[in-house]
Amino acid sequence: MLSSKSPAIVLLSGGLDSMVSAARALEDGFAVHALTVNYGQRHRVELNRAKMIATKLKLASHTEIALDLRAFGGSALTDEIDVPKDGVGDEIPVTYVPARNLVFLALTTACAEAKSARDIFIGVNALDYSGYPDCRPEFIESFAESARLGTKAGVEGTPLTIHAPLQHMTKADIAKECVRLGLDPSWSWSCYDPTAKGLPCGECDSCRLRKKGFAEAGIVDSTAYAQ
To answer: 50 in helix, strand or coil?
Structure first.
């Protein structure tokens, strides 16, 4: 039986933020279709977690597409560059993947238009994060306008809405939201550089921000870390 709910596309990386964003879209009453991009990242763990999350949340569909950004390199996640483990600094770190969210949102927009969806969810966060420029509110607002100008839907007067429900949340807020929505944090994966035993390193920027958020929220993260 086909769902009568309006479709929405969620960009599902397999991380905590994208998992919470997907659950928020479900809570808002959408039939949620997930898009995951295999961009040549250092490991497949987050891709496997995206599949798990899609199954656990009983999403309407889950599509994984391949776009190998290793051809460009320029990031510790797609090139032979060490992932920094010395804490979150003030500069944009080498884990920034050039224009990743710009590319991913373009793909998500194409997916949404193909499925006649008018809503896109992305789990970007601009408070407790690594300083990536494509996570900022002004970028999301600008992209929404570009999508309006560059799509058939936008030109015909039914532009897509870009939802970033976690945009102004701290990691502690997101941890609390995870619990409120009945999600298991261990379904998601945040680490940039897992150990040989398959554990989150606990020392990269992403692990540090996640651990800090759960600690500040007073919530136990069910994820087991190497450090």
So the answer is: helix
Token code pair at residue 107? 């793909």
Report the chain's terminal Cα–Cα distance, integer Å: 47
Q: Which residues pair with 66 in a beta bridge?
A: 38
SS3 for 101-113 is HHHHHHHHHHHHH
Residues 131, 88: Cα–Cα separation, whole Å: 9
Q: Which residues does residue 35 pair with via DSSP β-bridges, in sequence order?
A: 11, 63
Query: What is the identity of the amino acid at 168?
Result: H
In sign, the C-alpha dihedral spanning 214, 189, 36, 138 is positive
DSSP 15: S
Structure tokens at 195: 């150990």
Q: Is 161 helix (H, G, I), strand (E, B) or coil?
A: strand
DSSP assignment letter at 92 = P
Q: Is the full-model pTM beyond 0.85?
A: yes
- Tell me how crowded residue 187 is: count the other CB atoms within 10 A of its CB: 19
Predicted confidence at residue 3, as pLDDT, reads 55
